[in-house]
Predict the 3D structure of the following.
Amino acid sequence: MKLIRKGNLGAETPGLLLQDSREVDVSAFGEDFDEAFFDSSGIDRLQEWATTHADTAPEFPSGMRYGTPVARPSKIVCIGLNYKDHAEESGLEIPREPVIFFKATSAFCGPNDNLIIPRKSEKTDWEVELAFVIGKRASYVEESNALDHLAGYVLHNDYSEREFQIDRCGQWVKGKSCDSFAPVGPWLVTPDEIEDIDNLGMWLTLNGKTVQKSNTSNLVYKIPFLISYVSQFMTLLPGDIVSTGTPPGVGLGMDPPLYIKSGDVVKLGIDGLGESTQTAVNAS
Ligand code: ZN
């Protein structure tokens, strides 16, 4: 299944993207795609409901805004430096263990919402990433059954303000948490729809020019390991998002570095997970 949420900010309605490309409103199912939904086998129940109801569910009007495909999670956990060549372009060593950091959940936004360049930013940068959504509470999970805790996959742009992140002291969180720095979606894709999660093309363009082009096969630490690893340090709740890191081609790694300015258009995609577009505007 491909889960979607459409409508104005804060008033999104849950829906499904069907095999025949119709986008239907599933509010008759009676639940939003939030922690309670995932925690009560919501994906399975929705699948069951959809077999008899999806065909007759009302279609969304065309052109309606995509919200995030899941409601705001309890946390957004990110993995840093999970592509060997991105670590090299950042001038950093491959870590002995995964680097973990948070993004504020207030950064979470729809896939095609504007990117807001923060006040006093000169180094706003892009990062196309494969992210996944937790389907079942995960605490001290073994790698061998980690995938039981997975709801599905989403496309994420882990926007980063490099001066805030690197030059302003302390943790990366300052450069990762600005409003609009976590556009997610358009879809939450359930694992049964993806033949091989470790072999998906991924790309990002800036004003039409390709700057990132890679494949999820280049991930250093894979998803089952990451679920198990993160769950040794915190409990992952249903609906939480974990973003797996970015391949090379970010603005920081260019010579000279290249950063986003107002009016720039960033597009990205991962095979099977859809595409998203953000237009940059200055914070008011
Ligand atoms: Zn990242």
Notes: The mean pLDDT is 96. The CA atoms of residues 205 and 267 lie 5 Å apart. The pocket of zinc ion is lined by residues 78, 127, 129, 158, 245-246 (CB under 6 Å).
